[in-house]
Design goal:
Elements: H1 11-22, H2 25-32, H3 36-42, H4 53-63, H5 67-75, H6 92-111, H7 118-148, H8 150-164
């Protein structure tokens, strides 16, 4: 059904390096129950050790940081993770503001004449992922509103049906 192709780019390796740079590996290793040096090795693409799926999930859950998951998904040419458990009706304005801020950061980097370092690239990828994540949360909220109101859902369905049949 889906044609996943593993990218030739090293997105996951880059996300491991970014994750290691952002977090206290010694503290995380203790929380996950791994030797700190082993965890450093697993987050280093030049080492033979690799994170297991359970370790990746545990690290993501402990830190609430989607960097590793986003890198894994990017390696499969997929969009970043969207934590649907964060969807809250009262947060739509916050999601819109965060999405706008992330898109503004991306726009600023796009027109910047500065040399793009590895840190700049990581920051840009984080902004793109944050924008996608917040826009997706807005979409989920709107979908929930439509599905929560039978009359509204019926009206949207009718309009969509008319539009797809070429009558509008």
């Amino acid at each position: 059904m889906f044609d996943y192709r593993v990218s030739k780019q090293s997105y996951f390796a880059e996300s491991c390096a970014a994750f290691a740079a952002k977090h206290n590996i010694t503290k995380l290793a203790a929380q996950v129950g791994i030797n700190p040096q082993t965890l450093r090795n697993k987050l280093n693409p030049d080492q033979a050790h690799q994170l297991s799926c359970a370790e990746l999930l545990a690290l993501t859950d402990l830190t609430e940081d989607a960097t590793l998951i986003d890198g894994l998904l990017a390696q499969l040419n997929c969009m970043p993770a969207v934590p649907v458990n964060e969807v809250a009706e009262g947060n739509m304005a916050d999601y819109a503001l965060h999405a706008t801020a992330a898109i503004g950061t991306v726009a600023a980097r796009a027109v910047s004449k500065e040399r793009q370092t590895q840190q700049c690239k990581r920051s840009l990828v984080e902004s793109v992922n944050a924008g996608i994540r917040h826009l997706s949360l807005i979409g989920l909220l709107i979908q929930g509103r439509v599905e929560g109101s039978p009359a509204f859902a019926s009206a949207v369905g009718t309009i969509a049906s008319i539009a797809t049949n070429g009558m509008v």
